[in-house]
Design a protein that fits this description.
By secondary structure, the protein is of the alpha+beta class. It folds into 2 domains: about 130 residues, Beta-Lactamase, CATH 3.30.450.40; about 240 residues, PPM-type phosphatase domain (Phosphatase 2c, domain 1), CATH 3.60.40.10. The chain contains 12 helices and 16 strands. The longest helix is centred in the N-terminal third of the chain and has 21 residues.
Length: about 375
């Protein structure tokens, strides 16, 4: 290894946005004697990977999947050398895994430097995503519907976190979502979270949700509180659709210091709290869905989280799912699925709930798209 390698951050910033994997591979070969390098990008469903340097196709490397889930580096050694799996994460957003084969096990200093390389690559990939289609194309292992394309492009990410909290969301079916959506934004000690279920099908539902999300963002970015966000979005939808289409929405603003949550319940998403092994539903006064009537007015309710609490929000595609017209998932299997997540981080918990939902459908085609969002408040 060279004593003074060129800082990888500088190399990545100087590179074309679509050439970041090649820059990383060359850096690792030159300065760490890497024998093989692969940048694995997680697919939209976070169940498999797409290699950016190797032949195209799905990669289901079990060690890489464990690394993605645990967010911890892992090293395995054998006669041929050492294989490292390093998580590619940026502000809590899990992008994929960097896989590196070395002639031998790295020492402590080298391992630290390799983790830094992975961190720099993750930030660069996140920044480059808007400048090239290469990474988004790799994420999509099948073609998206136009509605799904719009919804995924509108998302803030799939996870977010720091020492105070970990937040994650998942949309399914990943390649055919319509009007279900989630949004979030962090500003100091305030975290805003919204979960939406736009009425209708296909592009009609996606465009409805896009209008609502952007109206709430517009209000939020001008300093508006939850009531003003809900009312502006409702007015925008009613002006466009005349009450014919609406968006059931739950708006939350979490105080990351005191745990107080301001809430506007404008429709069907359900909110639950996991505390000490028990799960209970937060009972809120359900107000009118956004856009149902002109000049609708909304009120804020409050509840409080305790340190270590888990907050879960699911759309009606989760809690009201009833394949064959039978018992709903919310009535029979949702709380069982949630209990399975007790020892998992939020980023894994959303996948566990969605797997439970798929099992509940038992092979039948879901009639609705679905959102699960999970927040762990660490304080």
């Amino acid at each position: 290894m060279s004593d003074h390698p060129v800082p990888i951050g500088a190399l990545l910033r100087a590179a074309a946005p679509d050439r970041l994997p090649e820059v990383i591979a060359e850096h690792l070969r030159r300065h760490f004697a890497a024998e093989q390098v692969e940048v694995l990008v997680a697919d939209l469903a976070l169940r498999q990977f797409a290699p950016l340097l190797g032949p195209p196709g799905a990669d289901t490397d079990p060690a890489a999947l464990r690394c993605l889930g645990s967010q911890q580096p892992a090293t395995t050694t054998g006669p041929a050398g050492a294989r490292l799996h390093l998580p590619l994460s940026c502000w809590g957003e899990r992008l994929g895994v960097l896989r590196v084969d070395l002639p031998g096990r790295p020492d402590t200093e080298q391992a630290d430097q390799l983790r830094l390389v992975a961190d720099e690559l993750a930030v660069a990939l996140r920044a480059a995503d808007r400048m090239t289609d290469r990474y988004r194309k790799a994420q999509c292992l099948q073609r998206l519907t136009m509605a799904a394309e719009l919804q995924w492009d509108l998302l803030p990410g799939r996870s977010l976190g720091d020492e105070r909290f970990l937040l994650a969301g998942q949309l399914e079916p990943a390649y055919e979502v319509r009007g279900d959506h989630f949004d979030w934004a962090l500003a100091g000690d305030r975290l805003t979270l919204t979960v939406l279920n736009g009425a209708g099908e296909g592009m009609d539902a996606a465009l409805l949700t896009a209008t609502a999300v952007n109206a709430m963002r517009n209000a939020r970015r001008c300093g508006a509180d939850l009531v003003e966000q809900a009312e502006l979005a409702s007015d925008a939808l009613h002006s466009r659709y005349g009450g014919g289409l609406h968006a059931a929405t739950l708006l939350l603003e979490i105080d990351l210091v005191g745990g107080w949550v301001d809430a506007v319940d404008a429709g069907s998403p359900h909110c639950m709290i996991g505390r000490g092994g028990e799960i209970s539903q937060v009972r809120l006064e359900q107000q009118l869905p956004l856009g149902m009537f002109g000049e609708a007015r909304y009120e804020i309710e409050r509840f409080r989280l305790e340190p270590g609490d888990r907050l879960l929000v699911v759309s009606d595609g989760v809690h009201a799912a009833a394949p064959g017209g039978g018992t709903t998932f919310g009535e029979s299997a949702l709380f069982t699925a949630l209990r399975r997540t007790r020892l998992q981080p939020a980023t894994e918990a959303v996948g566990t709930v969605m797997r439970g939902l798929r099992e509940f459908h038992a092979g039948s085609e879901p009639e609705d798209d679905a959102v699960t969002v999970c927040l762990d408040w660490r304080r």
